[in-house]
Amino acid sequence: MVSGLTPRKNLRDLLKQLTIGGVLAAVVLLFTQDFLLTLSPLERFELSTIDYRFRLRGPITTARDSANIVIVEISQESFKSLPDKWPWPRSYYARLVRNLKRAGAKVVGIDIVFSETDAHSPKNDEEFRTAIREAGIVVLAGKTEIASDKYVIRRERENYSNLFFDVDSSIGIVYVRNDEDGVYRRYRPFAVDPAANRRIPSFSFAVLNKFLGKPPFYTAENTAFEFVYAGKHIPKVDAVSMLINYYGPDRTFPHYKFADVIDDGGFTTIDERESGEDINTFDDPDFGYLYDGTFKNKIVLVGSTMPEDKDLFPVPIAQGKQVGDNLMYGVEIHANTIQNVLDGNFLRREPQWMRIVSVFVFCIFTFLATTKIKEIKFKRQIVGDLLGAVVMAAELTAIAFASVRLFSDYTFVAAVTSPALAVVFGYVGATAYNYVTERKQKVMIKGMFSTYVNPSVVDEIVAHPEKLRLGGERKELTVMFSDIEGFTSFAEPMQPERLVSILNEYLSRMTDVVFKNEGTLDKYEGDAIMAFWGAPTPQSDHALRACRAAVQMQEQLEVLRSEWKAQDKPAINVRIGINTGEMIVGNMGGRGRFDYTVIGDCVNLGARLESANRQYRTKIMIGEQTYAHISEHIVARQLDLLVVKGKTEPVAVYELVSMIGDAVPQNKLEVLRSYDKGFQQYRARDWKGAMQSFQEALDLDPNDYPSYLYLERSGIYSKNPPGPEWDGVFVLRTK
Asked: Given Cys at both, which of 426, 674, 701, 728 links 697, Cβ 3.0 to 4.6 Å?
C-alpha cells in the first residue's frame, strides 16, 4: 500500500476489510452450520476429525479396572460348549439370570429381542418369566420402527417386540442411529410412544433405571441444550442425541462366556459330558464366579459377539492394528453409554454461538493479517506469499492442536471444519482482495504518473508503491526549469496553429530527454518546462541526472534548430536553471484535482536561476548545492555570488558547460582557464590582472559574454575601487 495515507482513509480501508472478512465468515457459516444447506463432504470431514481425536487420545486405561460393567458374550466358544443348538432354549437365560443374581449382580441387561416363543418348549418361556420376576434385576431389549429425525414409535399397543415385556416392564429400545458416514457416535436416551402417551428409555438408560432404582419408564428431561437424567447433565449433540465418549475399542470392558456363567453344579456342558468330569466354572468353590466377586454389584450386559448376528458396527475408535478394526458389537456400545452416565464423562460440543464467533474471529483475523503482510513490499514477492501461507498454516495447526487437547483433557469437542474453512477463506479472500487492490492501485499510479515520468520509472513505482508518499514529504531533490528565450516576441506574429505545432515538437523533444534521464515532468507553462529528479523513486544521483538532461536538451536543441532551418522555422534559444536542496514533494491541490509537484525555497531559486541566465547570456545555470554534488562530473565555471530577487542570502551560481567526457573544443577550454584565472583575480581585487585575464579569454572567443561582463566590472572597480565591505556579491533586481 502507499504510505502517508490519511487517518480517515486508513479507517475506511479497515472498515472495508472488516466487512469483507465478515461476509466471508458468513459464507463459511452458510456452508457449515446447517442454516440453509448441508454439504455432505464437509459434514463427513468434521465427523472424521472426531475419529482422529479418539485415535490420538487412545483408550482410557482405567476403564477396564474401574468399570461398573461386565459383558457376558454369546460367542462361538459358548455354542461349542452348550448341548442345545441355536436358538437356545429360554431355560438357559433363566439359569443365567438366577446365577447372576446369586453372584451379586445388580442389573442384568439382556441385549436380545425375544420376539418369538421358545422353539424347544413353552415351559422354557415360563421358566424364563419366573426367573425374571423373581430376580427383579432384568432389563430386556425392545425394538420398534423409529423415525430417523424424531425417534417416534409407530405401532400401537406396543410390546416392543419382546414377549417378556409384561413381566415387569423393564425394557429399553436398542436402536442406535449412525451418522451420515455410517459410524456410530451418538446415542438417544429415549423414544416416544404416542399410543401409550409415554416415552420409552433406550436400552442403556433402562439399565441405568434399574441400577439407580428408578421406575421402568423414567426418562431424561429434554431441555434446549442438554438432557437431565438423575441429576446428571448430559450435553446434547442434536435435538435427540448425546455423543458417546468411547472408553476404548472393542473388548475394552471385561468379557465372560455365556456358557461359563450357566455352568453350575446342575448343568452339564458338552465338555463335561465328554470328559466325565464336572468343571462348574460358575460355582466351583475354588475358582467359580459365584465366589470370586466377578459380578458383585455390577451391571451385567448380555449380548452376541457372533459376526453372523450382524450386531457389529463401525465406531470412531479403533484397535489401530489394521484398517477396518474400528468395529464394535452393539452390547459394547450400550456399555460405553452406561459408563459415560455413571462417570459423568460426557463429550461436550461448543454451543452454536461459540462456533459462530470463532468463525468470524478466525476469518477476519486471517483476512486482516494476510492483507497486512501482503501490503509489506519485500524484495521478493514470494517472501510475502510464504509469510501469509505460514500464518495460515500456523492457524490451522493451532486449531488442530487445540481441538485434540480440548478433547483429550476436557472431553470438549470443538468444531474443526468451520474454523479451518474460515482460515482458508480468509487467506484466499485476502489474496484476492490484495490482487484487486494492487491492480486498482497500479491503474491509478500509471494514470497519475505516465505523463510525468519515464515508463520505466512508472513500472518501478507500480512494483514498489511504498516508494511513493502521497500528501507530501520533505526530501532533497533537484529541480530544473527551462524557458525559450524571447518567446513572446517570436510567438506574436505567428499563426496559432503553426505556433502550437512548433511548441509541441519542441516540448516533445525536451520531454523525451527528461524521461530518458528518468526525471519527473512536473508541468508545462506555455513554453516553459518544469521537471525534477529524486522522486517519486529515490535517486542518489538526482543532481547528476538533472545536469546531464540539461546538457542533452541543449544538444537536442541544436539538432532541432538544424531541422527547423530547413523547414523555414524560427531558431530558438533555451535557458535552463537547476537547483538542488530540500523541498516538499507530493500531491498538492484540492480533493478533486491535484498535481504531483514540488514546492519550497529551493524550487523558487531554481526558477530564478533560469531567468538569471539573461544577465550572463548563458544557457545553463546551476546552484551551489547542485555544483557541490557533481563538481567532479562536469565542466563548469562560477558565474557569480548572486542574491536573487526576494532573497537576502547570496548563493554561488555556475554555468554548466558540458559533462566530463563530452567533446569540448580546445579553444573553449582555454577560454574557461583564462576566465577562471580572471575570476580569482577579480575576487582578490587584482583589477588589472583580472582585466588582462578576461581580455585573454575574449581574444580567444569574442562572444564569451561572462568574460566581457567581468572585464567591464574590473575596469569600473580599477577606477573606483569598492570599500572594504565589498564581498563580490551581485544583487539581481529582476526575476
From this structure: 674
